[in-house]
Design goal:
443 residues, six-stranded parallel beta sheet
Length: 443
């Protein structure tokens, strides 16, 4: 009988390449996988339930509690419809007359829940509880938590029972040093739960050594390599046509999240210094509007173009249009400094040379395999110098393109997935030659 796996992830599971690869690998190896994630109420086309194959099923939990959704609808409708609003006020007036205490409590609760951080606590708490309840519904053999925000769910489901189950902690990020996670509570939570799981996975050896310094053991390393593309440089979308870029103009591509700390503000400042080409950013994120405003203020609309994120399956068709690709993370935390970066290997699969930051994992690949050039990602002039060097050295660019395609033969999930599947058969943490520790270099 095949083993049943309950996997948790704190997103909508629309563009999570790593989780897709892991679930697919497990299902192909004979495991039955249920992935619990979050539904996006803004996306009407996103199903609550999917069967990716006969052994891989996706369950998206309702994002908002029913009571909160009802409160929000009433509140919004009363603002839009004056007649309803008047009726609504009349009802509340009657409640005041009949039960002033009840009215006061309900009013305060409504305002507090709709206007303060308690709404966030309510929503997240309901989601966590929903995941836990769903995780107890079947007799799973293994629980798999992706990142710290689902580790409590996995811990409760796996360990709060008479017959304890195996718990795997798959940490895609450095939880104790990453943007948006400055509070010490995250480190304390991880330190408490990490002693109670059975196996741990991290993305690379720099992070594994950091973990050993922090917690005293060396976790499994499974790199975030993409699926191997069978047809390199085959089908493309007409990116020039979509964005109104002249056919002969080179596309200088960034693909990924438009987020703080990824060096995109420096990249925009570097764009006017490029000898030629149009900078294209594909993706969405919190600082996208801010970047678009900067582009308008600098009058660079012809030099810099934006596209929303595209489905993972379609992304290679866009990537293949690029003359070069950017991975210009900034050293704002150890999480960024130690990153391997999935997009680095996506560029490689498409035969696109890179202009990349000089952080250890990224630099190690780029320089050892000759797939691009490393620069100071904090300096727009350094970024521009790297771009212009590739623009003015077509022979070197061609060599890097060929080396990228060749190197993709080893940096792919088909090779890496066996290491991942071995974790499910592991009985203890492995000893590695990389266990000398690491000194974090954080500016």
């Amino acid at each position: 009988m095949s083993q049943k796996v309950c996997m948790f992830v704190w997103n909508h599971f629309t563009n999570d390449a790593r989780v897709l690869r892991e679930c697919t690998a497990l299902s192909e190896a004979g495991y039955e996988v249920d992935l619990l994630c979050i539904h996006d109420p803004k996306d009407a086309s996103l199903p609550r339930y999917e069967e990716r194959n006969e052994r891989f099923k996706v369950y998206r939990l309702k994002r908002y509690p029913v009571v909160l959704e009802l409160m929000q609808k009433i509140y919004k409708y009363s603002l839009q419809n004056k007649l309803f609003g008047a009726f609504f006020l009349l009802v509340w007036a009657l409640l005041i007359y009949m039960a002033p205490i009840v009215f006061s409590i309900l009013t305060v609760l409504a305002v507090v829940l709709l206007k303060t951080k308690l709404k966030v606590v309510w929503v997240r708490g309901s989601l966590i509880l929903g995941m836990i309840m769903k995780g107890f519904q079947k007799d799973y053999d293994i629980y798999h938590s992706n990142d710290l925000n689902t580790l409590p769910q996995g811990y409760i489901c796996a360990k709060w029972r008479l017959k304890r189950k195996k718990l795997i902690y798959d940490s895609h990020e450095v939880q104790t040093s990453r943007t948006g996670y400055q509070s010490p509570i995250y480190g304390k939570l991880e330190a408490f739960l990490i002693k109670r799981m059975d196996e741990m996975i991290v993305e690379n050896h720099t992070r594994a050594a950091y973990n050993e310094d922090l917690y005293g053991f060396y976790p499994h390393v499974v790199h975030n390599y993409p699926f191997k593309q069978k047809d390199i440089n085959d089908e493309k979308v007409d990116l020039h046509g979509i964005l109104g870029i002249p056919k002969g103009e080179k596309i200088l591509l960034y693909q990924g999240g438009i987020q703080t700390g990824r060096g995109l503000d420096k990249l925009v400042k570097a764009a006017p210094l490029f000898n030629e080409g149009v900078l294209v950013l594909i993706g969405d994120g919190k600082i996208k509007k801010e970047l678009e405003k900067t582009v308008q203020e600098m009058k660079l609309e012809d030099k810099i173009k934006f596209l929303p994120k595209v489905p993972l399956k379609e992304l290679p068709k866009y990537t293949r249009n690029a003359y070069l690709g950017f991975q210009v993370l900034n050293n704002v935390c150890f999480n960024h400094y130690s990153a391997s970066s999935n997009k680095l290997f996506e560029y490689m699969m498409a035969g696109v040379p890179v202009v990349a930051c000089d952080f250890p994992e990224i630099k190690g690949v780029v320089e050892s395999d000759g797939t691009g050039i490393c620069i100071d990602s904090h300096d727009p002039e350094s970024i521009a110098a790297g771009v212009n060097w590739l623009l003015t050295n077509p022979r070197a660019h061609t060599e890097m393109k060929e080396k990228s395609i060749a190197s993709s033969g080893k940096y792919n999930w088909e090779n890496e997935k066996n290491l991942f599947l071995n974790v499910y058969n592991a009985s203890r943490f492995p000893v590695s030659e990389y266990s000398d520790g690491v000194q974090a270099r954080i500016q």
